[in-house]
Design brief:
The structure is a homodimer.
Chain A (H helix, E strand, L loop, with lengths): L2 H5 L20 H8 L3 H9 L6 H14 L5 H8 L4 E6 L7 H13 L4 E6 L4 H12 L5 E5 L5 H10 L3 E4 L9 E4 L2 H14 L5 E5 L6 H17 L5 E4 L7 H14 L5 E4 L2 H14 L8 E3 L5 H5 L6 E3 L2 H16 L8 E3 L3 E3 L5
Parallel strand pairs in A: 1-2, 1-3, 3-4, 4-5, 5-11, 6-7, 6-8, 8-9
Antiparallel strand pairs in A: 10-12
Helix pairs in contact in A: 2-3, 2-4, 6-14, 7-8, 9-10, 11-12
Chain A binds a DNA duplex through α3 and α5.
Amino acid sequence: MSPDSVSGVTQPPPRRPRKRSATRSVTLSDVAASAGVSAQTVSRVVRDPRSVPDGTRARVEAAIAATGYVPNLAASNLASNRSRTVAALVPQISSSVFADTVHSFSTALAAHGYQIFVGTTDYRPEHEEDVLRSFLGRRPDGLLMVGTSHTSGTLALLAAAGVPVVETWGWSDDPVDLLVGFSNAAAAAAMVAHLVGRGRRRITFAGRHTSGDPRAAERLDGYTTAVRDLLGGAPRTVDAGPEPVAMDTGVTLLDLALERYPDSDAVMFSSDVFAAGALQACVRRGTDVPGTLALAGFGDFELARHLVPALTTVAVPSARIGELAAELLLTRMRGAPVERPHRDVGYEVVARESS
Amino acid sequence: MSPDSVSGVTQPPPRRPRKRSATRSVTLSDVAASAGVSAQTVSRVVRDPRSVPDGTRARVEAAIAATGYVPNLAASNLASNRSRTVAALVPQISSSVFADTVHSFSTALAAHGYQIFVGTTDYRPEHEEDVLRSFLGRRPDGLLMVGTSHTSGTLALLAAAGVPVVETWGWSDDPVDLLVGFSNAAAAAAMVAHLVGRGRRRITFAGRHTSGDPRAAERLDGYTTAVRDLLGGAPRTVDAGPEPVAMDTGVTLLDLALERYPDSDAVMFSSDVFAAGALQACVRRGTDVPGTLALAGFGDFELARHLVPALTTVAVPSARIGELAAELLLTRMRGAPVERPHRDVGYEVVARESS
DNA sequence: AGCGTGAATGTTAGCGCTACCGATAGCGCT
DNA sequence: AGCGCTATCGGTAGCGCTAACATTCACGCT
């Protein structure tokens, strides 16, 4: 034993500096050194250029350009406890009604310096919770969600996170926070009323309502109520189960509907994608639309008005939802009180040739 | 004046701890305290559960559940210098051929613990640089880009970032790094050959090639070459300029084509979206397709085979591109050597009723 | 008993940035 | 001159996490 350890007073070993896999990239202080100012000043130039006088700002900006500095947002987020980031959770992004919402939402927020990251749940609510959890790891300053019905786990996460939330594309008497949407049930009921007005009496609803699309289920509810009130008959419904939201599935749904309810004089679908598939199948088979069978969709995709015959559908102000959602969320993130935090944007039955 | 300041030896003021707007959220050490272990052990459980024995792991996991802990990824990124994040830059996501690529790419990478964030350039290459810059702020571990032609600013950013990159949906003799794609020119030439084989002699190309869609421009090149080689005539082209990639624009393009080249016996479009709009317009107007006019698209969207008449188009293995891109990128991110870093996935002319 | 070994866990020092505060200089006023 | 004010800039201490190392302990061996 060495005398040292016997003495009971061990000298701390001479510390060599820790090895860290250093980032090869340029940091704030590199820029600061190059510009001859402090890191703090560079930070100010990056975040709020007007807070620094012209001369200094020019020198710092030159140094940034010369060094090729790209700020590390992870460090910024950590230090400032703000991520300047907003997360959007949608069921599906491609070929979907939500594309316009996300696009306008993201454009509106980008103008205020926010980046949006989008997650898709593939129409599986149980998936929503996982996606949400991994998104919350990035500590978004705000959150957009499609739909108003969530699992209890999702609600717990939202509550714990304490982040401003906008729900969209639905309606609820008890929203989590902000709400920009409309009643899917009322929209579907309006479509039933339209079809009844056109003389249809045996209307079948075809959708994907049992497998995790709560909005389709709400539309089914509206359909059921309307059929009972207006026609007095039993509802006629067919369900696609877990099939994807695609035109192929629309054909399948059409076949199911005609097999189970051969006397149907109208089929309304829970999405334009389904209706478009069914409509083209009818054209190919020579089924007279709307003579023999009326068809209707939901969403008013661009496709709907181009098809021949043009597709009757329910138009929803998809882009407007995104804009409004961004507006309300910005107000809330600013900490200001939000006027009328629940906005009904409505819907409109667009009667075209297929009904 | 106090004696202190007169004495010239000012005591350092007693430092009260800095006030920081404390995060209200649960941190690693909260969990550690609750589980009776160190923060490091909790970190290990979160990142690599197998590195901790069952008993400890169970206790820590219980503590995580009890506290509702959600890891702060910004802190993790900063400390580990890895973001477990991959960025994808695409021209457009909704109603586009890239949707399948992004989807399969993201699925393949998610299986390895990576999150994908997607940015869209709206078909504006000058926008690409801005989007890239803001993405690099998040220090992605890898990058997917659509296309092989980039601005010099983009190339400089990529070089400085030193991040693995996969380019897709194109072909180049001098790629930035990895490449999974095919020759747009060859694909367009093959379509010309198909149309010529069907007896067409006055083929017009309609696209959006002057306004920032390099892939459309490449297709135009292939078309021009093929027309010269096979037909000997002058190329006939019409351009949509900055119009959006939408069915409406397809109708506009059709009208332009028929106005400028009234004797056209075939029109090939740079996208299925354009072709679908044009095709439905023909159906509505009673133009015989393919009798009077053959139409062809590009991309083989689901829509193409459902339309009546079904649309002739070029099928590209969009999902396969995403998968392969993920595979190569994973290998590179692992630091392993990549076999055959440039993969040609090919294309296929799908002859249907419209030609 | 003493030692080497390896598994399990703890300790320490940052990662790059910003909040917070303090220091200084310049200005207009009494 | 002295005062108070504002504009400008710098110093310091973390934000929550993990890499790198250190320590502890049980175990099998000589």
